[in-house]
Design brief:
The protein is α/β, with parallel strands linked by helices and about 250 residues long. The chain has a single domain, classed as Metallo-beta-lactamase, Chain A (4-Layer Sandwich). It has 7 helices and 16 strands. Strands 6-5-4-3-2-1-16 form a 7-stranded mixed sheet. Strands 7-8-9-10-11-14-15 form a 7-stranded mixed sheet, with helices on one face. The longest helix is centred in the C-terminal third of the chain and has 11 residues.
């Protein structure tokens, strides 16, 4: 498995010989409206590589939800409509309306190109904010000869996430750890939550992404690394890639 962080939650994943693009946000700095009450346009940093490098060889796209920092207008303009797009049930109508010809709804486990893809639930916030944010999913990826991956997606740490870790016992856990908040409420994990995930899965490699690209993400990579060092969670177990960096497991 090779996982390359492009920016924010956008990943290129090479898994069991399949090339996946995850949650593509491909626009230039400032191309997305302000979000979550923070009056600054997004993204706040440029892509670390040319667009062609992001898209070259992609065989399928995973979309956790339709917020613009996970599927933006730039991506909608660039993605070939014949590409298979796999997404949460709540994304189906929007993806079809956007002209994608092969939309796969992740409402239950599926077999796709030799991969087993199992959707997992998430809470993109809590209280009244949760209702406004809408449905999100993560996924568990499994294939012969590959580490099992639990990509938690845009979720806070709450009991079903810990239950998924306990039941699946994934080899790799990908967390969205940038501490994004709306209305004073966290809508994804922060540093403390990420360390709790690492403690809950001492056998797993945790890869923390979704940092320093969106104005309402308030946690930084340096803060997470410092907190992990203080907690005794090693850099071998908790990986915090830079934009453009590839991790092989």
């Amino acid at each position: 498995m090779d996982l390359r962080l492009i920016r924010n939650a956008t990943l290129r994943l090479t898994y069991a010989g399949v090339e996946l693009l995850v949650d593509p946000m491909l626009g230039v700095v400032g191309s997305i409206r302000p979000m979550a009450g923070v009056q600054k346009r997004n993204p706040t940093v440029e892509l670390p590589c040319p667009i062609g490098e992001v898209l070259d060889g992609v065989e399928g796209v995973l979309v956790s939800h339709l917020h613009p920092d996970h599927l933006d207008d730039a991506a909608l303009g660039l993605l070939p409509r014949h590409l298979p797009v796999l997404g949460a049930p709540s994304t189906h109508a929007g993806l079809v309306e956007s002209g994608f010809e092969d939309v796969v709804e992740l409402a239950a486990p599926i077999r796709w190109r030799g991969l087993t893809i199992t959707p997992t639930i998430g809470h993109h916030g809590s209280g009244d904010v949760l209702a406004r944010m809408g449905e999100v999913i993560g996924v568990v990826l499994a294939a012969d000869g590959e580490p099992t991956i639990y990509w938690a997606g845009d979720t806070i740490l709450y009991p079903p996430v810990l239950e998924a870790i306990d039941s699946v016992r994934p080899d790799v856990i990908v967390t969205h750890s940038g501490g994004a908040a709306a209305g004073g409420v966290n809508i994804i994990m922060d540093a403390a939550d990420t360390l709790d995930v690492a403690r809950a899965a001492p056998w797993a490699t945790v890869i923390a992404v979704h940092f320093e690209a969106i104005a309402h993400c308030f946690a930084t990579r340096a803060e997470l690394r410092a907190a992990a060092d203080d907690a005794g969670v090693s850099a071998k177990r908790l990986l915090i890639p830079a934009d453009g960096e590839t991790i092989s497991v």
